[in-house]
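Late entry, evening session. Most of the bench is empty. Finally got around to the prediction I had been postponing all week. Sequence below, unchanged from the version circulated by S.P.
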Amino acid sequence: MRFHTRKWVKPEDLNPNGSLFGGQLLAWIDEEVALYTVIQLENSKVVTKYMSEINFMSSARQGDIVEIGILVTKFGKSSIALKCEARNKMTRETIITIDNIVMVNLGPDGKPAPHGKVEVEFVKDRLKDY
């Protein structure tokens, strides 16, 4: 799993218990997975179709640094399936895991469209001819 994004837990991210609000963490994850998918599929029109069971394993507090990791598990015809983990950057303690997130590639008409991808590509490899 590659950890791409780091988020600093700020006062506005906290719930009444003084820990990271789960909805905020899920918003960060949804955005990170969407950005990752846009880059992988080379299409800015993608949507979240499905998130499996969400397992909160620990919490984060103000000042903690949360990092979000993503692993592609499958390429479908018009979709991509991913696994996600968010953890405390300093302690490496897992905060949340999501075993299956499905993102769908959309065509100009807003309907699912084939993306033609079969494996993870890195932008640096796409640019080596330049």
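Two things to note before I forget:
Residues 22-41 form the longest helix (20 residues).
The chain has a mean pLDDT of 94.
Will write this up properly tomorrow.
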